[in-house]
């Protein structure tokens, strides 16, 4: 219904937690989808239904052992939008490049009123 109103749907790691949510994401048209991290603490965890679709693993350390150049475990960064794209690609049987291109164009249209 919301997509029919011309609205965009934002997806983040928390939104990919359950099988039910993943089923909803399967039905969201790519031309109405944007990717989010909801930084800093809303990533995809191993317990999430979508975790099996994540392909990329970042080099991470616990926050108490911070090292420049490594990500802090369980903290979302902008780079984590790749993980969301991987999951969406897997759920919708699309390539990550296809998801990235579509969601980038949507983000430009929503935030900058400039379709790309």
Describe this structure in words.
With 116 residues, this protein is an alpha/beta fold. The chain contains three helices and four strands, in the order βαβββαα. The radius of gyration is 15 Å and the shape is globular. The two termini are 25 Å apart. The mean pLDDT is 92.
Task: List key phrases describing it.
116 residues; two-stranded parallel ribbon; 4 strands; 9% strand
What is this entry, summarized?
The protein is an alpha/beta fold and 116 residues long.
Note the topology.
Elements: E1 9-11, H1 19-26, E2 33-35, E3 60-61, E4 71-72, H2 81-92, H3 96-112
Parallel strand pairs: 1-2, 3-4
Q: Output the radius of gyration.
A: 15 Å
- The fraction of residues assigned to DSSP E strands is 5-15%
- The low-confidence runs, each spanning 5 or more residues with pLDDT under 50, are none
| Principal-axis shape | globular
Please, what is the average pLDDT? 92
Task: Give the ordered list of helices and strands.
Answer: EHEEEHH
Largest sheet: 2 strands, parallel
Our count of helices gives 3
Number of strands: 4
Query: Roughly how much helix do the residues carry, as a percent range?
Result: 25-40%
* Structure class: alpha/beta
Termini separation comes to 25 Å
Task: Walk across the major sheet and give the strand order.
Answer: 1-2
């Amino acid at each position: 219904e919301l997509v029919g109103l011309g609205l965009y749907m934002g997806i983040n790691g928390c939104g990919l937690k359950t099988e039910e949510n993943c089923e909803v994401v399967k039905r969201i048209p790519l031309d109405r989808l944007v990717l989010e991290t909801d930084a800093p603490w809303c990533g995809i965890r191993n317990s999430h239904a979508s975790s099996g679709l994540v392909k990329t693993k970042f080099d991470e350390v616990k926050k108490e052992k911070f090292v420049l150049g490594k990500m802090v475990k369980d903290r979302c960064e902008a780079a984590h939008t790749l993980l969301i794209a991987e999951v969406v690609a897997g759920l919708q049987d699309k390539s990550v490049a296809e998801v990235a291109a579509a969601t980038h164009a949507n983000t430009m249209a929503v935030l900058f009123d400039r379709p790309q």
